[in-house]
Specification:
- The chain has 445 residues and is of the alpha+beta class.
- Helices cover 47% and strands 14% of the residues.
- The protein is built from 15 helices and 14 strands.
- The longest helix is centred in the middle third of the chain and has 30 residues.
- It is elongated and about 120 Å long.
- The N and C termini lie far apart (141 Å).
């Protein structure tokens, strides 16, 4: 009985010790990997190497609150961790699993397979699966200057020019003593001069011809403004839309190549998934031999080709798109379950340090510290502000979109003919010697 009491007291003592475990002065060997923007080395102005990054800032904040000491152990094989045999892991998971490190401090994805051999903290960053590819661009030909308007609009503009010229010539035939539009060429020249915002040599004088000219001036001003603004936008923002809305949509483009990065949870998700579209995509990548790219090679291919996409975890995509020339397109949504809940630190299975670090990470989330760290590395360093990013799409102006301008022009031409008809009617009345007309003449004298 005394022995059982002693064992019980020892167990309670051990539990209390674990619950009140202090990290003050504790030395932790942290297995990690150098990758921007999470952890990497720079040379400062004093020619000294300095380790910076998202993980470094997070570790510094945790150290201030917990008082531990640490050493970084760069993983020798450069992998995050995947099973390579019975009871064997590579990468940082292997370093922790085999006792060569005390914890993993990196952008390590939380997933079920790794959770069987390590103890995760709560995620410090949520992630999703995404696709990054170069924005398709418009290829300009010899007649690129005609792109702002559709063919129908150009034909209607040409027809409006002939209508205006014909109206001026018609009015000029009855007003030869005032209007100098005695030939078709002179009428066409007047219409072209107004259309190109140039001053003609002479202007109409009769009320009918003037009404026609005002309608044509309004029409020309609107068309010239629309053409100039649209052409400028097309020459500087020459993008078309590739209809990809989910990761699975890549299956609909046989000529579009894509790849994932080996050694990460994304690669495992495609390799071990039971989700049929991902199974097809993985087999497609294997058959094309495009599924094995390290970080910089994959992104180099994305920026150099218009038919290649890189499937990555969202934080790396968020970082990739912050660099000029800001020509990358991003799709995050997927019909499949997400590859992982997020990035977290890892400890040996059953370690009480996982709960202690989790509590401190939650504190950093609640007081906004992690949000500030994220803003520092993913927002403030961006070279692609909203003003520098390419617009969503620039399309050709169709007739339906500007038909109001043509209707206004047509109304002006109609009014000019109405005024011309009134003038002809007055002349006819004057020629007949209408009593009312004679009375108006005497009154005017």
């Amino acid at each position: 009985m005394a022995t059982m009491v002693l064992l019980w007291a020892l167990l309670v003592s051990l539990l209390q010790t674990n619950c009140s475990l202090s990290t003050e002065g504790l030395l932790l060997n942290m297995s990690t990997i150098l990758r921007q923007p999470f952890l990497y080395d720079i040379v400062d102005l004093d020619n000294k190497t300095k380790r910076v990054g998202y993980i470094q800032d997070l570790i510094n904040e945790l150290q201030l609150r917990m008082g531990f000491e640490y050493n970084y152990l760069i993983v020798p094989d450069g992998n995050y961790g995947a099973p390579i045999g019975n009871d064997t892991w590579n990468g940082m998971i292997g370093e922790l699993y085999h006792g060569r490190a005390d914890m993993i401090a990196a952008d390590l994805t939380v997933n079920a397979l790794r959770s069987e051999v390590v103890e995760y903290t709560v995620p410090f960053m949520r992630i999703d699966l995404g696709v990054v590819y170069k924005k398709p661009t418009v290829k300009f030909g010899v007649l690129a200057y005609m792109m702002p308007f559709s063919n129908r609009v150009w034909l209607v503009i040409l027809g409006s020019l002939f209508v205006t010229s014909a109206a001026l010539y018609f009015f000029g035939m009855f007003e030869t003593n005032k209007d100098r539009f005695e030939s078709v060429v002179s009428c066409l020249y007047f219409g072209l001069a107004c259309l190109f915002a140039q001053g003609p040599e002479y202007y109409p004088k009769s009320i009918s011809a003037r009404t026609t000219a005002v309608a044509w001036w309004f029409f020309s001003l609107m068309m010239l403004t629309l053409y100039t603004s649209s052409l400028t936008a097309m020459l500087t923002v020459n993008r078309v839309q590739l209809p990809i809305e989910t990761v699975e949509d890549l299956l609909d483009y046989p000529d579009f190549h894509y790849a994932v990065e080996p050694g990460q949870a994304t690669n495992l998700a495609f390799k071990l998934t039971s989700y049929e579209p991902f199974q097809k995509m993985y087999q497609d990548m294997i058959s094309r031999d495009t599924g094995f790219f390290i970080d910089y090679i994959g992104m180099e291919r994305v920026r150099s080709r218009n038919d290649f996409a890189f499937i990555r975890e969202s934080p790396y995509i968020d970082y990739d798109i912050t660099f000029a020339p800001c020509d990358l397109e991003v799709i995050y949504s997927s019909a499949s379950p997400k590859t992982g809940a997020g990035y977290g630190f890892a400890f040996p299975k059953g370690s009480p340090l996982a709960d202690i670090f989790s509590a401190k990470i939650l504190e950093l989330v609640e007081d906004g510290t992690i949000a500030k760290i994220h803003k520092k590395w993913f927002v403030l360093r961006s070279q692609c502000s909203d003003k520098k990013k390419l617009a969503e799409e620039v399309s050709t102006i169709n007739f339906k979109e500007i038909q109001g301008i043509f209707l206004t022009f047509g109304l002006g031409i109609a009014i000019s003919f109405v005024l011309f008809g009134i003038r002809l009617a007055r002349k006819a009345l004057q020629a007949k010697g209408c009593p009312e007309t004679r009375f108006m003449r005497k009154k005017s004298r």
